[in-house]
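Z., the sequence and structure:
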Amino acid sequence: MKFKYCPICGGKLEEKFSYDEGGVPYCPKDDIMYFDTPTPCVIVAVVKDDKILLLKQSYIFKHSKVLVSGYVTNGEIVEDTVLREVKEETGIVVKEPKYLGSYYLSSREIIMLTFMVKYESGDIIKSDEVEWVDWSNLEDALCEMCEDEIGKSVVRKVLKNVGHKDKKAYRCDDGSCEL
């Protein structure tokens, strides 16, 4: 987010140069610089043996399944967000969050922090924001996530992390998915 007005005093911000950051919105009254602030969110691959948890949420993709995701709340560390979002959306408890990397979605100013977690306990209880949730074969996930390029990238990382030895390329019936 680019600040135009000071959130403290409401005054119009000026541009002030900050070393190697370049021009930054600045409030001379409150003597504060406001750096760009992308919104952090998590994307979580939940793994149980040779299965991965996939969801259907049409407001994200019409024809694709997705991984668990959600926004980091103020005062929350990212690893806690991972555990909370999985519990909220699916009802299950997970453990051992492992960071897999990040992606930036410029169209929505979102920094997506990706994780892999292990299933610990519980039965799936679908939240109201989820249309469908269930375990899928890890090998089939790429084809079930046809629209979700970032999600497929996370699944590829999961396959490598779990030591997937099969070198074959996975292709959907329409030929759109590959490992």
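Residues 1-36 form a domain with the Ubiquitin Ligase Nedd4; Chain: W; fold (CATH 2.20.70). The CA atoms of residues 116 and 161 lie 9 Å apart.

Let me know what you think.
H.
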